[in-house]
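cron nightly-structures :: item 1 of 1
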Amino acid sequence: MSWLKGYLSTEKEKLSRLHGREKGEYIWQYYKLWIIGAVVLVWAAGFFCYRFLFTPNDNWFFAVFTNTYAEVGNGSELWDGFVEYSGYDTREKNVEFNNASYFDYTKNGGFGNTYYEAFVAYADSGTLDAVTMEKDQLVALGASGRLKDLNREECAALREKYGDRLVYTQPYDEDYSTQPVPVGIDVSDSILMTRYQIYSGDSCVLGIGAESSHLEAVETFLDYIFEEGQ
C-alpha cells in the first residue's frame, strides 16, 4: 500500500510539471491500456444493462428448424414474413427461429450430441413451441414423449384444421399408450419446402413441444406457411 501511495505521489508530481499537449501525450503513452480497458468495461456494463432492462425475456413463438442450412433463422425472409403476418410486436416478446440445431434421433437417440441436449432443455422447460424434421426423424423423436400428443383436447383446433396431415408414432412408454399417437403435422407442401427447401428429401413434418403453451401461435405459424404458398 505504501508503494502505491508513493507511485501515485510521484505520478502526480510529474503531471503537475506538464501542461497542455505534453500532459495529454504522457497520459496516453503510459496509461492507454488502462484507459482502453476502462472504456471497454463501461461499454460492456452499459450493453448488458441495456439487454437486461430492454430485451424481452418471453416469447410469442419459439421454433427450431433442425438439420437445415437454409436461411430461415431470425431476421430471415421467413422470419420477417411471419412477424408481419402474425402482428406480433417483437419489442414486447420474442419470435425465435433457431436454425442451428443438428441431431438425428434415429442415430443413438441423439445422445452425446450437444444440439440434442439443448433441444431437450428447450422442450422440457416449455420454451419449445414447434420443431421441424424430416418424417423418419420426427417419428423417432416423437416416441420419446418430448412432442405433444395431438389427440389432447387442447389440440382440438389443430386436429380439425390439419387432421388429414397427422403423422403418428408408437410411444416407448406403453403405460401411456399401446397404440400409435399423432405427434406431427405434415408440412411437406408448405413454403418451408416449396420456397425455402429446408430439407433435401421430400418430407417435412412439424411437431409441437410437449410442454408448449403457445398452441395459438403454432396454429398461426401453420396458417402462414400454407397460406403464403397459395
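cron nightly-structures :: done
DSSP finds eight helices and six strands in the chain.
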